[in-house]
Each structure stands twice: as C-alpha cells, then as structure tokens.
Amino acid sequence: MTQTELAIIGLGKIARDQHVPALAASPAFTLAATVDPVSRREDVPAFTNISTFLAQMPEVGAVSLCTPPQVRFAVAREALLAGRHVLLEKPPGTTVSEVMTLERIARDQGRTLFTAWHSQFAPGIPAARDWLAPRRITAITVTWREDVRRWHPGQDWIFEPGGTGVFDPGINAYSVLTAILPVALYTTGGTLEVPANRETPIAAQLTMRTEEGAPVDLDFDFRETGTQTWDMLIRTDQGDLALSQGGARIVADGALISDEGALAGEYDRIYARFAELIAKGESDVDLTPFRHVADAMMLGRHKQTDAFAW
Amino acid sequence: MTQTELAIIGLGKIARDQHVPALAASPAFTLAATVDPVSRREDVPAFTNISTFLAQMPEVGAVSLCTPPQVRFAVAREALLAGRHVLLEKPPGTTVSEVMTLERIARDQGRTLFTAWHSQFAPGIPAARDWLAPRRITAITVTWREDVRRWHPGQDWIFEPGGTGVFDPGINAYSVLTAILPVALYTTGGTLEVPANRETPIAAQLTMRTEEGAPVDLDFDFRETGTQTWDMLIRTDQGDLALSQGGARIVADGALISDEGALAGEYDRIYARFAELIAKGESDVDLTPFRHVADAMMLGRHKQTDAFAW
C-alpha cells in the first residue's frame, strides 16, 4: 500500500499524545512534516509557517489540523486551496459557518475534508448504536465532568471566544449522542457558568429533548478534581443503556456489551477512516455536535461564577 | 384559482400589521382561522389551542406561525404531523437544530415548510443581487439601529433566552446580506452588550469576513431613539452599493436603482412564494441568517450594560 505523506499542523498536546502514535502505526499514512510556531520534532522537517510548508513540500498530500480552533479556518482554507486533503481535530472551527465554507471549498477542489470526532470512534459506539436502533428513547442523562487543569493545562485559548470552554469536552458527549441515538435532539435551555475573568463557560447545565419529547439532561463541568466522569444513561421502552469512559464501556440491560480501555484505538480508526475517504474521493463533515454547542450558547442563561486561574 | 385556507397562529403585532393585510390581498390564500391564547378576530373562527384547531378544521391546509420563537417548534411540528403546510415568521425557532428537525419532518410528510425572511422580499433585493453578482467585495459596513420600545413595545420575550435580543432585527440584516452577496460570510468576533437585568443582547458590534477575507463590520443597536437606520454600504472593486431602509432603497455607483417604500409589498411577495412552494410540493428552508446569529452568540464577548425597562 502506498502511504500518503501527511503533515501535522499544530504540534500540541493532542498531536503528541494521539496523532503522532496513530500515524506511526498507520498503514495508510506517514508523518512527513510538522508546522508549528514553536514546537518541532527532530525526525521530520519542521516549519513555522503554513504557506512555506505548502510551497516547499508539494508531495505531502494531506494535513491534520490540531491547532486551537481560532486559527483553524484560515489554515484549512489555504491547505484545501493548495490541493491537500484536510483532517480537522475537534472542534472543527470557531463557527458552524466557517466549517460549511470549508466543506464547499473541499468539494470545489475535489479534496477530502474530514471532521474527526474522536469520541465517535470509541470502541463501544457501534454496539451502542445497534442496541438503541430499534428502541424508543424515554429519558437521557449525560454527566461529563473533568478537571480542566489536568487535561488542558495552561490552554488559555479554551476560555477565549471560540474556545467554547467546557463545551470542548462537552462536544464529545454531543458527538457520542448523535452517533448512537436513532432520533434527533434539540436544546431547550440551560445555564452557562462563566468565570468572572473569562469569556467561555467553565460549567453548563443544559436541557434538551428528543424529537419525540423525551427529556435529556446534561451536566458539563470542568472543575471536577475527583473522579473523572464521562457517562450517559439512556432509558428506553425496552431496558436501559449505560455508557461510561466516554464510550469505551457499555452496559445494556444489565449486560456488558463493550469494555475496552478509554480511547483504545480511537485515533487508529480515525486515520483508517481518513484513508478510506481519500480513496473514495469523499468528505465526511458532520456538523451536528458543533451545532448543538452553538444552540446551547445561544439559548443558555449566562451566570457569572468564580474567577478561574490555572 | 382555488384559494388555500390558512390559519394564523399567534395573532400579535406582526400578524396584525403584515399578515392579515397580505392575506386579504392574496389571490392564493384566505384567512380561515386564528389560534392565540388571548387575541382574536371577529370575522373568522378563533381557537386558543393548536390541537383543537387542527382537530376541528381539517380543511385548513396551511398555517402561518407568528408566535414568539420560544413555542414555535412544538406548534410547527404538530401542524406538520397533522399534514399542514407551515410558514415560519422570522426567526424560525430558538435553535438551528429545531428548524432542521422541522425540515426533515416536512420532507417525511410531503408538506411545505417555508422560513419566511421578510427582508429578502424587500423591493430592492433582486437589483442589488444582480448588481453585485459580477463584482468582488472589498469591504462591508452594516448599521442596523432602531428603538426597541417603538417596534417591540412590551415584548419581553425578546430579552428572554431564545428571543435573541437585538438579533431580532439584526437577523434581517443577515438575511439581506446572504440574499445579495455572491460570497459566503463568517463571523470572526464581537461584543454583545447584555442589560444587567436581561438575558439577550440589546446591542452588538460584530466583525465578519467574506470567504476571501474582506472585512465586514456590523453595528446592531436596539437603543436608537433618533433616526431609525437599516443601512449597509458594500464596497467592491467596481464601485459601491448603498442599501437603506432595510432594502427598499438602493444606490449603486451613485445611481438610484431601486426606491420604493420600506416593506412595500414584502408580505405580498412572501405569500406568493408560499403558494408557489405549495404548488410545486417544495420547501424553502434557508438557515444561513439564523446560523450567523448562533455563531455571533457563540463567539461574542459578553459585556454587561445598563438594566433595561420599558
């Protein structure tokens, strides 16, 4: 199999923790360069500027964008217009409109654009979707509580406009929900707790409904220093499904139907999917999770809370 | 021509000022009922409850939803599921996801759903679009300043979550922009001024860019007690276009290309379009203006401002 050369743009925590190892194991891709204003690796060419990279390495056919979302659009647009396939880490941008514009540019250029929602590649997702498909949802509770200092140390961009605050992990919950539920959801209200010295929520309590009216309660919190929780409980007319560890472990009607380590293989499957899309000449742009964030930000009541410092 | 019987749901200011006269003049529709918890007319049956209306008047084939947006989704869903064609006054709901769900239900039901952006039916819109089509946009300024006490007296829902505050008129500016520009826009930032005692912005200063990077500055203000202004200036590589009175008056390259009264004929054209969609068995669901509001609410910095009282 001929490997596609790929560059990582934005060599931060998620790139080092997940993308680099997944690329090292990928039969489809090989890491050919990095682009980052400060970070670099010694084993591949390092650029500090996207334009220079695009001009000097035309043989690199694909890029993975792992930068903070605030600079994503301009870089992705430039890469697509230069004929590269583009994988967007989550969240795919700062606004839904940006990503829709990228989708159109990718189509015009005949290149692949892939919004990689890593939680949709969690090991238990297919089993959960299959189990839920024939059932009627009656109620859902989502608890997504983690310690921002542990998972995003010093990442101030999270609390800047476009960083979405606690929706940075919360969007993973949305991406799981929309991947496994047989019905559409919409937001009905909620509270957004914004630190006095920051711009985006550090916690959010939200209500949604399924299209048929079943209640959905979501509890997102970035201040959880105890047990880290990425759980949902989905009640149906024929038993309940409990998802934990962000989608790794699934118990349905009391029986364990999936139990692998959290994040196991997520990024391997993401790169396999990216290779498949490129081979087929297709894009995969799923905007639903991001739209739920935008809807929550539009409908939520702002409530000022304690100033936040790292 | 056989007229379609139509019910107005939500007999408030916009229904009385615009929908009732437009229906009286329409060759395609006739007002057959109203549904409103308090208001009524003497000339047609009046209901206080949507379910009762749907059950008792199956011959009424279409409804216009003029309620505040917070109750729009449930009512529209019920009407579509009961086989009625639905016109949604702007804004079409409280979240983009809601309206996308309605779009799917309309498709499943084989009924027409129409998001009626009245400003897109302003008299100067076609001339502006044609004039701009071959030109390259270099800069845009939008000034949308009106007195909320004059245009929305006592309408507290505007300042409740889902009411969108100053975006209620601002969305008209977005709907004009997206109707006349040959390029996509996306929001890059801004400030949202929220009264200390309210939930939604009373003013907003926003920046957008065209896809090609041209700057777009928007000034939305609900506190304008002086001259009411609904203007935009669009600079291009071949002259400028000035739109005023919300799209009624257009001056392009110094020449007047459209000058009719503000709102002249907007609702007549809306109902003609609704009739055309029903005849063709199509829907027209344009979510772009609403998505720009959601993007602005997601990206804007909140700034507390003076408490607001009517």
Automatic annotation (TrEMBL), chains A, B:
EC number, as in UniProt: 1.1.1.48
InterPro entries: Gfo/Idh/MocA-like_OxRdtase_N, Gfo/Idh/MocA_oxidrdct_glycsds, NAD(P)-bd_dom_sf
Domain Gfo/Idh/MocA-like oxidoreductase N-terminal: 6-114
Keywords from the named record: Oxidoreductase
Organism domain of life: Bacteria
Coiled-coil ranges per UniProt: none
Gene Ontology molecular function: galactose 1-dehydrogenase activity; nucleotide binding
SUPFAM superfamilies: NAD(P)-binding Rossmann-fold domains
Protein's UniProt name: D-galactose 1-dehydrogenase
